[in-house]
Amino acid sequence: MDYGAFLKDNGYICCRFVIINLQATNSFMKKRLLLSVFLTMMILPLMAAEGEGKQLFTKPKFSGFAMASYQATFQGGNNSNSFDLRLVRASIEGRILDDFYYKIQGQINGNTTTLGSSPRLVDYFMEWQKLDYFRVKLGQFKRPFTYENPMNPIDQGFMGYSQPVSKLAGFSDRTGMHASNGRDIGLQFQGDFLKNSSGRNLLHYQIGVFNGQGINVKDVDERKDIIGGAWVMPISGMRLGAFGWEGSYARKGGNGVVSLRQHRYALSAEYKKGDLQLRTEYIHSTGLGFATTYQNSANASDVTIKTYTDKDGNVVENDKSDGIYALAIVPVVKDKLMAKARYDLYRPTASSVAAKTNYEVGLNYRFCKYLEVQTEYCLTHDRALADPDYSTVFVQVSIRY
Asked: In angstroms, rounded to a whole number, what is the distance separating the alpha carbons of residues 42 and 101?
């Protein structure tokens, strides 16, 4: 992969960016779109700053992480256990002309049933960061929805993101969207302002416009998602916020484009100080989903709508869904050992039908900042199953580099 070669000739700045798109589907269109965006963002400021004596580039920083796990599920006659190479990520980041921050991040999945989606590009963006109160980000990156979504998979502390975030923020989304790690392609504005006497900002806002189709996929219905949020920080470490999402998810079937409206909101609260984390979020969604998850070209044209039935076989309305989680991660030994617990509920019909609740407890041990082991026991009550109660034991080793 050639991340960039920059030449200066006869007073003009030229830029060459050769990118290998890590996702096979629509690879040419995605490369052309992303290439055009970044050429525009990079060439214009470089030309404008010629002769000003500014440093064009900082030294690129390479980093990443890898996660491997063991999981055993005890579910009556359907017990299972397996080692899993969850994922490996590698990224490059840096600055151009001090004010422009860029990041490119790729992901390789381990043993999965959809190997065609790995490896893939997860992040590819640039952000103008000259002003604290007004920053502009363009490319592919995390949607500005919920506190948990933008968190690193290691830092969020549990065996996976909470169900409400996973289903309603673009991970394994209820719409049937392909796994997108909470990301999309778009443009975002954000900032922090209203400093107190100690210089700490009290308010934050973020709002963006996105394709609405997830990562590495162009828009289908030519409509855009508007996603945003704001929070107040009354004391150090505390955030109280709200988020909104208005948009659609679409597929093109045999009879044309089918677009499913999505209206979502989230209410969030968090207190974080060092290794201490206390966080809760409630998320509500209005909008239907497709029955199949987009994993290949056949799924992309399947416009069958997902339905649910109650225990008597009656079809239940499912245009609404919601979920809530509450967690605590508490340091036992400073910088080393943390105890954790999480309550995690998701209701795909905004009722008890098919509701799934996880009760989780565990310990995380950090050998150093580069190596961490996370352990967990989870008791699940899943009303969609004939035998709703089962348990899971989870152990994960994570390294950073």
From this structure: 11
Q: What is the CATH number of the domain that holds 291?
A: 2.40.160.10
- DSSP bridge pairs for 52: none
Span 10-54, pLDDT tens digits: 333 333 333 333 333 344 444 444 445 444 444 445 444 444 556
> Do 141 and 278 form a contact (C-beta atoms < 8 A)?
no
- Residue 388 CA, chain-centre distance (Å), reads 29
d(CA 161, CA 172): 10
Largest CA distance in the chain: 77
* Whole-structure pTM value: 0.85
Into how many domains does the chain fold? 1
Confidence of residue 111 (pLDDT cuts 50, 70, 90): low
Which among 206, 272, 201 has a CA at the least distance from the CA of 242? 206
Q: Is 340 within 8 Å of 325 (Cβ atoms)?
A: no
Find the DSSP H helices in 211-357. Answer: 297-300
Question: DSSP characters for 63-110?
Answer: EEEEEEEEEEEE-TT--EEEEEEEEEEEEEEEEETTTEEEEEEEEEE-
398 burial type by CB count under 10 A (0-12 exposed, 13-18 middle, 19+ buried): buried
CA 248/CA 224 separation, integer angstroms: 7
Hey, CA dihedral for 131, 137, 142, 143, is it positive or negative? positive
Q: Are 192 and 199 in contact (CB under 8 A)?
A: no
**Residue pair 213/184 in contact by the 8 Å Cβ criterion:** yes
Which range (104-108, 110-114, 180-184, 211-215) has the least confidence? Answer: 110-114
Residue 181's CB: how many other CB atoms inside 10 A?
22
User: Are the beta carbons of 362 and 374 closer than 8 angstroms?
Assistant: yes
The parent domain of residue 103 ranges over 2-400
Sorted by sequence, the CB contacts under 8 Å of residue 336 that are 6+ apart come out as: 365, 366
